[in-house]
Amino acid sequence: MRKRPVLILLSDTCYFEFILKMPRSYQMMSSLSSLPVSIQMIDAGERVLQSSMSNQKMNLGEWIKHIGSFSESIDAVFSVEDLKFDIPSLRNTLPRLHHIGINCMKDEPDDRDIFNVQYLLRTFLSYVRNVSLVSVPLGENLSLQHIGTTNLKHLSIVIERGLNLVEVSTWNFETCDIWMMAYQKLLFDLNRFFKLWIKGTNPKLKKLSIYWDTGIIPDWNVLLKELKAIKTEAEEEGTESFIIRNIFGINAEINVDHDGHLAIVTFTLSN
């Protein structure tokens, strides 16, 4: 069964899906110039709304722009393995993106997947300030280091390997979430990251959260070594909280937690 293009319009209290019914001859689109034959609207309760809306002689790209004009921000999520569109045409259709997400769910991404990821990032990265990456293959020509040093407000990463957290100290973001695999020196690298912050790195950083799977309670003393951290009362049960201060007199709170399966370290600027 062929999937129909769906546009979703969100409001504060509800959302609407615009399902674009394509002609029978519709196969796989490579551009946004195809004309839908009709538009069906569905609300959050999955009720089909009565509408006299026709295709208005607008193609898919024009419908995206039209519905997007009702919104203050537009989010776009791309599944690399399903991407068939001409990417430059997507950029022209989506000129005002608030956030882009790129996902790759293939166990073994191929060269085409890597090319699509790199092309998407090079096309959109300079136009958005919020980026999410889920298991994306980057290749040698475009690394997380390149992405992290762009001027981002928020960066979210799911990475199925270890990540050198010392390198994260050179990234340029305000907030960041990282889901990653545990590796032998993870706590040492986190400790080094916080020491570098104390010395003045990451001046834009407001919040950093790091998650990794482990059935073993981490030795938080390794993380806190020589940070001169002051223990405070945690807001949540099971969480330990500490305050550290950098050379500029700015305080930050470090929260550490382990729920039996997942370890979480959260760094939040205090003032």
From TrEMBL:
Signal peptide: none annotated. Residues 144-210 form the Sdz-33 F-box domain. Pfam families: FBA_2. This is Sdz-33 F-box domain-containing protein. It comes from Caenorhabditis nigoni. The gene is Cnig_chr_X.g26506.
